[in-house]
Specification:
Elements lengths: L8 E5 L7 E5 L7 E4 L13 H8 L5 E4 L2 E4 L1 E3 L4 E3 L6 E4 L7 E3 L5 E3 L2 E3 L8 E6 L5 E3 L2 E3 L3 E6 L2 E6 L2 E3 L3 E5 L2 E3 L11 E2 L17 E2 L6 E2 L15 H70 L1
Parallel strand pairs: 3-4, 4-7, 5-8, 6-9, 7-10, 8-11, 9-12, 10-13, 11-14, 12-15, 13-16, 14-17, 15-18, 16-19, 17-20
Antiparallel strand pairs: 1-2, 2-3, 21-22
Length: 304
């Protein structure tokens, strides 16, 4: 995700014709940051071609942030990151023609949209990916399409944390791609036609979801829609508990070590002080004896 820096320079262009695009230029390795809007929530009608125009204007490596609204289908033909944080209200609608999102470039990342309304012919899909590698599709709701997702000749892409619901065919993949993650998110996608069960109640289906077209499977599909939003892996909880126990033991041992060292050094210091006191006392005693003897000798001398 993009982190805005203190050096961000903001540009806004508006007008009756080109109320087109709000652009935010972020200098640095992340490239240009384009904020597509304004949103319908701000009372300004959304141009359904905003995302198309932003893609055309963007350079390789740029990030496009999309405000809530309903937009026309798009083709992503360059390395871009396209983000919305409200998939329920940020919709890309194909209006019954062709594929809704077509990805034909490597290293595309897209997140946070509802994708609906593909055509109903041949390979029309909510998300079509053709001959691409290393793309990421996550946090999407793909619904009401001929194919929810259609991947052909694609390798090394990651598709996870998506709701794939009520499509004529949920997904097709004839390549070799990853449909789940094993890291903190802990799962794959939610499929509303899955016949698997979650008997152990961990939020993940107990058997893999098979994706037609090849050997791909979603081995950790979600039992509930948006399941990843509230998921806490059991192993993570166990690791956290173990970590807390180890930390606690470390604190206890540290305290005990400090107490031992304190007691040890205190004892040593007391012994040294006592030895010094005795030595000083002995020296003073010797001096006093010599002084008394000298005085006594002097008195005897005077008497004589």
């Amino acid at each position: 995700m993009i982190q805005m820096t203190p050096g961000t320079k903001s540009l806004r262009k508006s007008g009756a014709i080109s109320c087109l695009l709000a652009a935010m230029l972020v200098t640095g390795s992340f490239g240009l940051f384009l904020a597509v809007g304004p949103s319908e929530a701000q009372g300004v009608p959304v141009n359904p071609n905003y995302i198309r125009n932003a893609i055309d204007a963007a350079n390789v490596g740029d990030t496009i942030w999309v405000e809530p609204g309903t937009y026309n289908s798009i083709v992503i033909d360059k390395e871009l990151t396209i983000i919305s944080n409200n998939s329920a209200e940020t919709i890309i609608d194909g209006q019954g023609s062709l594929s809704v999102i077509t990805i034909v470039s490597d290293w595309v990342a897209i997140s946070g949209f509802t994708v609906t309304g593909s055509g109903n012919v041949s390979f029309d899909a909510g998300i079509m990916m053709a001959g691409v590698n290393n793309c990421t599709v996550e946090n999407m709701t793909v619904t009401g399409n001929r194919y929810g997702m259609f991947l052909t000749a694609c390798y090394g892409n990651i598709i996870h944390s998506n709701n794939i619901i009520n499509n004529t065919h949920q997904a097709y993949d004839d390549g070799l791609n990853t449909w789940y993650v094993e890291e903190e998110a802990g799962g794959g996608n939610y499929w509303d036609d899955s016949e698997a069960e979650d008997d152990d109640g961990d939020g993940l289906m107990d058997t893999a979801y098979t994706i037609i077209g090849g050997a791909n499977k979603d081995s950790s599909s979600w039992a509930e829609k948006d399941g990843w939003l509230s998921f806490e892996p059991e192993d993570k909880i166990e690791v956290n508990a173990l970590s807390m126990m180890i930390i606690g033991m470390g604190v206890v041992f540290s305290i005990l070590a400090i107490l031992w060292m304190s007691t040890h050094f205190t004892g040593v210091m007391i012994q040294k002080l006592e030895a010094n006191r005795k030595a000083k006392s002995s020296q003073e005693g010797a001096g006093e004896t010599e002084t008394v003897a000298a005085i006594a000798a002097a008195i005897d001398t005077r008497r004589q």
